C-alpha cells in the first residue's frame, strides 16, 4: 500500500510523466486488501443458537 501511494506521489511531481492506470490500481487494490485483512481478523458473529441442555443423569438408587 505504501509503495503504491509513494510511487503515485513521486511520479506525479515530475514534469513529463503521469501516473499510469497500473499504479492507481496498485494503490486502490492495496487498500482493499488491507480492509479484507482487517475484516478477516475480526471475531465472527455467530447467530444465536439454542443453548445445549446439560446431560441427564440416571436416577440414583
Describe the structure.
The longest helix is centred in the middle third of the chain and has 21 residues, at 21-41. This protein is mostly helical and 61 residues long. Helix content is 52%, strand content 0%. α1 runs antiparallel to α2 (21-41).
Largest sheet: none
Low-confidence stretches: none
Name the structural class.
mainly alpha
What's the number of extended β-strand segments?
0
Number of helical elements: 2
What is the mean predicted local confidence, pLDDT? 75
The end-to-end distance, rounded to whole angstroms, is: 70 Å
- Element-by-element helix/strand order: HH
Question: Which value, in Å, is the CA radius of gyration?
Answer: 27 Å
The coarse silhouette is rod-shaped
Range of helix content: 40-55%
Strand content: under 5%
Any key phrases for this structure?
61 residues, mainly alpha, 52% helix, rod-shaped
Question: What is the secondary structure topology, with strand pairs?
Answer:
Elements: H1 2-12, H2 21-41
Helix pairs in contact: 1-2
Structure summary:
By secondary structure, this protein is mainly α.
Amino acid at each position: 500500500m505504501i509503495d503504491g501511494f509513494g510511487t503515485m506521489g513521486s511520479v506525479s511531481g515530475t514534469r513529463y510523466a503521469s501516473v499510469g492506470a497500473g499504479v492507481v490500481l496498485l494503490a486502490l487494490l492495496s487498500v482493499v486488501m488491507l480492509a479484507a485483512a482487517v475484516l478477516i481478523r475480526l471475531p465472527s458473529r455467530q447467530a444465536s443458537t439454542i443453548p445445549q441442555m446439560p446431560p441427564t443423569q440416571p436416577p440414583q438408587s
